[in-house]
Write a structure and sequence with these properties.
353 residues, Fructose-1,6-Bisphosphatase, Chain A, domain 1, D-Maltodextrin-Binding Protein, domain 2, 2 domains, 11 helices, 12 strands, 19% strand, binds adenosine-3'-5'-diphosphate, binds magnesium ion, Inositol_monophosphatase_CS
Length: 353
Amino acid sequence: MTTLYARELEIAQLAVQRAAILTKRVFLEKAKGTVSKDDASPVTIGDFGAQALIIAALRAHFPHDAIVAEEEAAQLRADAGLRDLIWGLVRETKLEDVAAEGLLGGGVRDVEDLMEVLDRGRSEGGRIGRVWTIDPIDGTKGFLRGGQYAIALALLEDGDVKVGVLGCPNLPVDDAAPLAAEVGAEGEDGMGVVFSAVVGQGATSRPLGAGGLAEGKRIQMREVKEMAGASFCESVESGHSNQSEAAQIAQKLGITKPSVRMDSQAKYGSIARGAGDIYLRLPTSKTYQEKIWDHAAGDLIVREAGGQVTDTKGQRLDFGVGRTLASNSGVIAAPAAVHGRVLEVVQEVLGLN
Ligand SMILES: Nc1ncnc2c1ncn2[C@@H]1O[C@H](COP(=O)(O)O)[C@@H](OP(=O)(O)O)[C@H]1O
Ligand SMILES: [Mg+2]
Ligand SMILES: [Mg+2]
Ligand SMILES: [Mg+2]
């Protein structure tokens, strides 16, 4: 029996795992100051490198699918040094598990091909057909400070998320580890996890490092028996989410613990496995439109783990509008049983009802 989206899931997981090898290396070498003689930001190198590796895998396996990726190659065209540096990293990055690398395949031939691969990510998205969306490094600020970041990949079909994969190199493998802002040292044992979900099939986690083709373990959101014991997370960046409104909402809900501030979609993965309960992302401006690659994988992983994800208006995130979530405003993610209550208080505090 073949399960729906089994191949998409396997390729997406391996592609994310391989991309994480590159981002971890870039982080470590940057920390030692040896990545580059020029002053290209390590996040730039990591972004382009990871995106190229993922697109190359998608090109090999699903050549007809559209791709909406965060980064654009234009900057690279004008910078041969940076291009060569990234190409060198991409060429050398392979999964440790030889069988897994063989299965994933999808190489980049040369520097020209690198540009071609990156350009494949320029689709406008939309409501028709198969569209992959990629955030090669989500939480660039977290990546730079050695905090949380994620490699995010999702498949949309006719605007709905069907497969979501999040690689989180700096989260503990242990699903029972409590939600914490601080990170274990890079390379430390027990760090690095991949969250995955397929629509209708639940959500799982598996170690990022051990790589290969390991079975995932089923994850579930935690049951919130009383709000006093609940924990909520939000962005580290006060410019990305209104933290003072979030504090008022938490207080009104009766949440007693301070928020856990964490970069990237690691927040979605963390609440999906019950390490935390609620994720609030409250708009800081009327004009900013959330990007689909910042939410698609996380949205499905939380919903498949028993959660509900809406915007502050109570509407589901609509990934079929284009490259952004133009019709949504903010994000409220919580266990399905308490989402309604959380939304009510959000709307009260934001003056939306
Ligand atoms: N004004 C803003 N409001 C909300 N999100 C923003 C924003 N400016 C940038 N972002 C997005 O916030 C993402 C990080 O999420 P978080 O704040 O949860 O860590 C960034 O992803 P990248 O780091 O991939 O660029 C970026 O796309
Ligand atoms: Mg992002
Ligand atoms: Mg990014
Ligand atoms: Mg960005």
